[in-house]
Amino acid sequence: MFDTGTTGFMLLATSLVMLMTPGLAFFYGGLAGKRNILGIMMQSFVSMGITTIMWFVCGYSLCFSGDTMGGLIGNLDKAFMAGVDLNTPFPGNTKLPEFVFMAYQMMFAIITPALITGAFVNRVTFKSYILFLILWQVLVYYPFAHMVWGGGLLAKWGVLDFAGGIVVHATAGFAALASVIYVGKRRDKESPPNSIPLIAIGTGLLWFGWYGFNAGSALDVNAVTGLAFLNTDVAASFAAITWLIIEWYLQKKPKFVGLLTGAVAGLATITPAAGFVTLPSACAIGIAAGIVCYMAVHLKNKMGWDDALDVWGVHGIGGCLGTILLGVFATKTMNAAGADGLIAGDGMFFVKQLVAVVGACVYGYVFTYGMLALINKITPVKVTETDEDKGLDDSLHGEKAYDEGVL
After folding, report:
1. Would you call 337 exposed, middle or buried from its count of C-beta atoms within 10 A (0-12, 13-18, 19+)?
2. Which of 78, 170, 267, 294 has its CB 3.0 to 4.6 Å from that of 61, i.e. a possible disulfide?
3. What is the pTM of this model?
4. Phi and psi angles of residue 93, each rounded to the nearest 5 degrees, phi first
């Protein structure tokens, strides 16, 4: 009944996307100061547990079952996977069991709120983060996943997002900015990365997993799958080298962390366009990512926003840029299920992409800020000055990343 090749590929893609969350934990863990390594890594890993439970209970159904509230959210018909058995095909591709599609999309839901955590490293209590993790998914991620990928409002309007420029990166990036504005600055802003090799390991895992993130979003094994795979690698490479060159020119030395950050910026930026644009367009998108995301990080510093690990500048701006450039470079010659962008003669598609991503950013920012204010009435969001100075690994979790006595 089901195609074993397609099913096997999607299980592999699911595994790759799952690997991205530990990769993100290593990436953030290396960037954090040495007293806050475990705290930031745990925030990624705990999402794997809590989000999986939520996805099974109601998340998948709210994203991919029915259509309520004018297309803003799904319904609860498939809560607890009701009505889905071993022989139920995924409606979007009947060669694939729905169980596999459910598992694949669950991995996106896991990593998206974890992206936000890099912005408020060493400032947020663990209890408030748990509440944030739950509420943010229900009020922000689930609606946008439904509106874009679940046949909701934006999908009906003609908005495209191949693998998460709007659903993942724009919403998470601007939620990160709202979090930074709400919780305020760190007391020690000069805390350097504790382990650049750990950042490199995290980047490698993210880059590797991103092939499942983007190529897997074709939900099949065909030429578009290969296109998305290659576009992903090319954009990341062009962005990494562009960032390296800019930083080398301005700071007179080639920086390894800059190279790694540029790669992640390129990966985030190509995500919405990976299966809809030509290879030369992916090159241009990668170069644009390296320039624009670098400028966004510089702007963040100039504005005094303490986005500790540059979530807004890399993921938020990268996701927005990629979504807008999809409106420029999209062509049906590469994917008949896509659209023609501005260059191919469809200015209205460009306008739709622009309006959708601006709406996602505003929604993600406003709801996140309001959510944190609500959570703060239940339990303090920000840690005490004493705990922050001591480091959250010890003060909140009673653990240390390294046994300094044997170093």
Report:
1. exposed
2. 78
3. 0.96
4. -160, 100
